[in-house]
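*** Query protein ***
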Amino acid sequence: MSDYLWLALACAAFVGTHFLMSHPFRKGLVRGLGANGFALAYSAVSLALFYWMIVEFTRAPKGDFAWPVGPFLWGVATLVTLVAAILFTGSFVRNPSLPGAPDAMATQDPAGVFKVTRHPMMWGFALWGIAHILVAPRVDNFIFAGSIVFLALVGAKAQEIKKASLSGVEWDAWLRRTSYWPRFSMLPSAGIGPWFAGILLWGVATWAHPYLGVAGAGIFRWFAGI
């Protein structure tokens, strides 16, 4: 496991600073840096540490798969990443969880991807990580993608606690009308916008995989005859 030490440290730093800056250190940082300064510092630290994660991921040994990966798992991962893309792209519209969103937004009826889950962005990241673990079940990917899954799902719960203390009754009402766990049966009613944007993102991202030095993904895996 020593071969993966630097990757583990980079992932731990990325996840740890997210939690520290979002919760116990947030008030002090906002007070010292101002709201805009905090947002800039938060983004800079996150991007720098994510870049470190990627560097260490590329350097880490590519060991054996923990289970066999064939067309079935590739098909599952293809569908999972499509759902992830739809949830992610739809999460930018009328999202009361986004920084700066007014408290009154939490009193709205859930629409779009929020019919599926109140954390579509977080679940988008989590499903992305799960799909990549399915088709690349190596130690380095367990650490890298697993860190993203952990941050997304645990971070979503931590965000709920923070928003409840800041927003009060508005957020409580939002919690009652929405679900933490995805209700995938509601995905068809998410609206044409998230579906169109999600399919576009999913198509471009899977098409670009070979140009990033990764084997063909999604439907392009079969088109390429891999």
